[in-house]
Structure formats: C-alpha cells, structure tokens
Amino acid sequence: SDARLGRITKAETTCNYCAVGCRFELYGKDGDVLGVRPADPEATPANDFSTCVKGKFGYDFVNSDDRLTTPLIRDGDGFREASWAEAYDRIYEELTRIQTQHGTDSVAVTSSSKCTNEENFLNQKFARQVLKTPHVDNCARLCHSSTVAGLQQTVGYGAMTNRINEDIGETECYLITGSNTTEGHPVLATRIKQNVRDGADLFVFEPRKIGLAEHATQYTRTKPGSDIAWLNGMVRHIIDQDLHDTEFIDSRTKHFDELKEKVEPFTPERVEELAGVPPEELKRAAETIATADTCIFGWAMGMTQHAHGTRNVLAITNLALVTGHLGKPGAGLSPFRGQNNVQGGGGDMGPAPHNLPGYQDPTDDEIADKFAEVWGERPPQEVGLRLPEQYEAMLRGDIRGMYIMGENPVLSEPDISEAEEALEELEFLAVQDIFLTETAEYADVVLPAASNAEKYGTFTNTERRVQLVRPAIDPPGIARTDLEILCDLADRFGYEWDYDSAADVMDEIAELVPIYGGISYDRLESTPEGIQWPCTDADDPGTPYLYEERFNFDDGLARFVPADYAGPAELPDEEYPLMLTSGRVLYHWHTGTMTRRTQVSMDHVPESFVTIHPRMADQLGVEDGEYVRVVSRRGDIVVKAEVNDVADPGVVFIPMHFAEGAINELTQHELDPVSYIPEYKVSSVRIEPLGPD
Ligand code: SF4
C-alpha cells in the first residue's frame, strides 16, 4: 500500500567496505536497511552497475541486535547504561585528571578509516586542539603507511596515481603483486579480468596462486618477503636490454645512475636464489612491461606489511619510473587501498602523528600558523608516536589514557597478547563504536555510534575520488554520529565548534587542506561522479591522473630511491619450520566486526582456517577439515585445516577476519623503520595435528 511504501527511504550512497568506492542506492524502512539497488550510472564512476557480494548483501550488521544503542559505563566486570551527559562527564574528568597529573602527552587518540572525512578531520582536531596531544594515529599505519612513505619520497603524493575505470580498465599490461584482488577488491578485479579478456597482459607475482592468477598471462610464485629482489632484478634486466625509457628518465627524473648501480647485483640467477623466480619468467615479464605503451602496477598489503615495506614500494616505483609508465592515461602506480575511506579519513585528513591534514608538516611554523588562524592556537608541533609505538608507551606507563574511535586494536594490532596487556595498563579507555567490540570490552566508557548507513559525509576512494555518503535510516536507540559525538565532547572540554553539518566541516577542510581546496558539498551534490583531488579551487575540475607534467616536488622531478635487499625478519627454523602469511577472503572484512554479523558471510565462511599444502598435510598426518594447533613464538591458535595447493608446501595461510583463531595471536611486532608498519605477512610457525575429533 502507499502507506507502507511511504515509510521506505532511499539514499544514493557509497559502499562502506573496501576503497573501490562502489556507489549504489540503499533502501531502508523503520530503522532497518532493506537492500541495495544499482544507482544512476553517472553517479557510480568506479562500479557502473556492479557491486560485490559484500556491497550487495553485506548490510545485515546495521540491523543487528548487537548494535550499541546507549552509552555504557564500566560497572565491575560489566557495564551499566548511562546518559550521554554522564558519559561525556566521565571522559572529560578522567582525561583531564590524567593530563593534569602526567602531562598532555599522556593521552592518545585513535581515528578510523571506516568513518567519514569530516569525522576523521574532527578526530585529529579533538586530539590536537582540545587534548593538545600529538599522539593521534589510525589503522592506515597497519595497512598502507609504507605505500604513503614510499610514494612521498619518489613521486610526491602518497596515493594511487590513476583512475579505476579509464586507466586500470584500459591499460595494455598489468603487474599485480601482493594483492589478492578478486577477494580484496572484487569489482576492481572484474575490470582487470575484462580487460585481460580483451587482450591486455597480466603478470601476477605472488607466493599464493590466487584467483587472479587463473586469468594471468604468467603467474610466478615468489617466496614470501622476497619482493625487492625480483623488482630490482626486473629493473636491472630492463636497463641491461636497453629497454628503459631514456627520454622519460632524462626529462622527468633524477638519481638514475644511483639506481643503476644499486640494481647491478640483481642478476636473474641471484633473483632466482633469493625469490624463487625462474629467470625466463623474470625476463619475460620485464620485457613485456618495458615495451608496453601503458602499464598499471597494482599492489596491496602483500607488499606493504613487511619490516621492509617502504623499500618494497620504492622498488616497484623505480620499475614504473624506469619504464616511463606514469603521468599518462592507462598507466600508473596503483596501491589498492583497503578500508572504504582509508585514503581520505586515514591519510588525507591527517589523523597521523607526523602529518597534519593534507600531509602538511606539523613542525613547519608557517603551516602551524595557518592552522592557528582557524583554530585559535597552533597544533602541537612535535611528531607524536605511531600506533605500535603508542602500545609500547602504554606498557611503559607513558600513555595512560586513550580515546579510540571505530577501531579494534585487540584484533588488528600484531601480537594480540601484547596489545591486550597494553590496554589493561591504561588508567582510562573510551571507545566509540557501533558494537561492543573485543576492544570495547576493555573500555571504561563506551559510546554508541551511527553506522555509515545512518550519516552524511564523504569518503575518498582508492583513486582519490571524494564521494558523498548519505543516510538511509536513523541510528538505533540514542546512538549518535561520530561527528555529533566529537562536537559534543569538544563542547564538554570548553571548545565551541561551530558546525551545523558535515558540509561546514568540509568548508574548514577546504580552507586548511590545499588538495581539497575546491571541494564543497554544493559542488559534490551537483557532481554525481565525485571529485578527484588535488582540487585546489572552486574552478578546478580535479585531477583524474597525477603527474602529467610535474611530480609533486619543487623541481617537478621524480626521484629514484634505490631499495637495498632485505628478506623476512623471521625465517623458518627447526622449531617453527613453516612460513605463515595472511590475507582477506571475499566474504569477510578486516577484523570481522561487521561481516561476522552478516548472514551471507557467515553462511560461506563461518570460521577461521589454515591452508596447508597436500604434501605437508600428509607429512603432518592432517586431513582436510580437521582442527590443528598453529604455534608461533608469540602464541597459538586452533583452526580448521583446509588442504589445498594454493601455496608451496612450506607456506601456510590464515585469513585475518576472526576473533576465534585470530591470526594476530601469532604474528610479530617487527616494524618497518620508516613507516612503522608491522611485518604481518611473514611469521614462522609449526602445525600440531589434533586428530580427527
Ligand atoms: Fe563495496 Fe568494494 Fe565490493 Fe565495491 S568492491 S561493493 S566498494 S566491497
């Protein structure tokens, strides 16, 4: 009936899982999400009509009975319900007490790449302006911080250089490495597969024979953690064969001679020894990439989550520069970012200890003064602690209070027992989230937040495209949006934040962040395809691909930064003879907070598992489907064995999405010295069979 239809609400919005940034219409009714339908093709630049299974069916979590509906305050071992006023008072009193006793630097704030740009901007503003602490960070530290650090050194911007549709979808050639694209970025993988069907070459270099390898011109199995060797080897072979783009190198780059000298030792034979890559496969890939008119270099966390993650990124960037595959349509460096808004919220908005919004340097006086003009005072000018350092500081008692927005470090930090110990050491923890997560269980105050189906804002997808997010329903109970909560809290601390809406926050972002200088809600409402940064003023249409004429340095030149070889920090030995690696599965998402509450995901992949090669399974006496104990130097977990030959006999794999059988009980704390990203991708383990029962 009309009355029934009248209650159905609809919003054109952006997917809240991965950073492909698919857009669709979200339908709601009486506080529940009903479903998803394709949106106007003009408004869906990354996906047209498609979505993956998570985008299409992954909304159950919004309707879940587990949603937090009211603030909670710790009461013995549990929680009691509280009013907003009481919860805010407690946060104000406790953080103020800790800062008075131990200094402003004794508290830290965590932001969330799940939340909007506006909420992340306010989160770091809350840390810097209200709490006056430089210790603010977010989960980008754990996924692509090494990408950002590597690209900033070589080409300037820490972001994908090109577009999804027009460039990734149209290139002549791909090198994909460290990305299980069909599972992690499904709609983007579909673009690649379509283009390969139309004749593009696809080279996949991976320790595991992932889904995309089935479509590849050549799949090459590599040893985990050996990427610098084969990337340097490709550069060496290209120079050796005189296939490098001398015109591009001469006119647009510097330090080529240093690179040439550093890659010289990486002969095909040495690469084979270090990385297990057969010489003919290395040469074929290198020659095809060098002679193609255009090539896309795609990667994800298989490249970044290493103790030498930044060097991996330098190595792949050197390959793109040597072959001149930058600054033109169909070419580019394509880090596939993870979370829906990790590019914008986790990077561009500056909730990071060494970057103000827009990657601006907090130690620079001119920049600090620019912020002071708008905020009334300079933000703290020292570089704060990175996320893993914050957990160390918590264990030492240097950080005693913490405010976490939408992040689940109990599952996402490497070495879970250490993260739990650190949270236990805190005098006060406030968590703002949509569920009582494994981390919120440690909190003193829990604040109920709105999901992305319940708020206005913007996300910036992996191709730097700023897109609107709109509410289809209201938040449950008395939950509030993260934006409202942060404004309320600032007010409780005596700061008048005069924002009527997310649009007002974007106006402040545009004022302070040059790459967002021309972005406003008025423009976004009338630009269905969104706007790609840099967009410096109201007349700037945005930048579909970067570096057409200049790299982002004063002299406009890209820098070759040679990458010295480093292998995994922990190698197999007698006690721990297997290499463990990790990754995503299509049906789940990150720490599983959302997908473990989504029917379709649990129907397909209900629990964690470890993949074991048939030969290794035989040797261990393990049958497919039996439970096994996986043990590392950090801890042990029990998971189901899945026997298959996706990886070598010496390599096992566990997905990262589960609380039971959580892989980070096993992973190690070794950090990349530049980006401080932990080495999640390679740890040594042993497997103990538990028998058929
Ligand atoms: Fe959402 Fe990513 Fe799937 Fe698109 S590909 S629907 S953005 S999870």
From TrEMBL:
The gene is fdhF. This is Formate dehydrogenase subunit alpha. The keyword Kinase does not apply. The lineage of its organism: Archaea, Methanobacteriati, Methanobacteriota, Stenosarchaea group, Halobacteria. Its EC number is 1.17.1.9. Its cofactor is [4Fe-4S] cluster; Mo-bis(molybdopterin guanine dinucleotide). Keywords: 2Fe-2S, 4Fe-4S, Iron, Iron-sulfur, Metal-binding, Molybdenum, Oxidoreductase, Repeat. It is an enzyme of class 1 (oxidoreductase). Residues 8-66 form the 4Fe-4S Mo/W bis-MGD-type domain. It comes from the Archaea. Belongs to the prokaryotic molybdopterin-containing oxidoreductase family. One of its GO terms (molecular function) is formate dehydrogenase (NAD+) activity.
